[in-house]
Amino acid sequence: MANALKPIGVLGGVFDPVHYGHLALAREAAKRLDLAEVRFVPANVPPHRSQPHASAEQRVQMLKLAISGSPCFVLDSREMARQGASYTVDTLNTMRTELGGKRPLCLLMGADAFAGLASWHRWTRLFKLAHIAVVQRPGYDLKNLRPRLSEELAKRRAKSPHAAFDMPSGAIIMLRVKPVAISASMIRERLRSGKSARNLLPPAVLDYIQEQGLYHGVG
Known about the structure:
By secondary structure, this protein is of the alpha/beta class. It has a single domain (about 5-180), classed as HUPs (Rossmann fold, 3-Layer(aba) Sandwich). Helix content is about 35%, strand content about 15%. A six-stranded parallel β-sheet has the order 3-2-1-4-5-6, with helices on both faces. Helix 2 (about 55-65) packs antiparallel against helix 8 (about 205-210). The longest helix has 14 residues, at about 20-35. It starts with 7 loop residues before the first strand and ends in a 7-residue tail after the last helix. The mean pLDDT is about 90.
């Protein structure tokens, strides 16, 4: 597929802080789905969780450091410029307007996030705007989904990752990847308690955290 027509991946999150788990997910998805790029989209005001410990500016800077040197990783800070809650549907809508109606967009998320998709703002609209690639980890069961989401999965599940990209949006793609047992809360807790997080996130990000005095005294 010509690069101008290859799908674009979208990975949203709080990234408080960005870590190797985020980067591994993006790298694996880019390889398996033959994505032209993966856009990291940090949320300004996350609607489904407490507010971040690091400021918007600090989280953006950590992302810049983390993805530096990876040509297919792109920082997309549009949610930082938008007032109010950072709804994914609004972000994808603006991307779709920019890209036109033909190029595939692929929203990347873990199976745990997908399980809660039916609680997202205007969640059924997401399928009009993008495909959803669900990164499954061994042992995580998607059988007990809300009925409406289970129905959507049954009718939209792609037979193979690339079969979905005949269309610009609308499919659910299941990806099984090697698990990376890292979370931002784990990193914050280690830093709070004075333990090393050296193997959990890029060295440049850890150096920045230490320079800024982030995550000391928080969980």
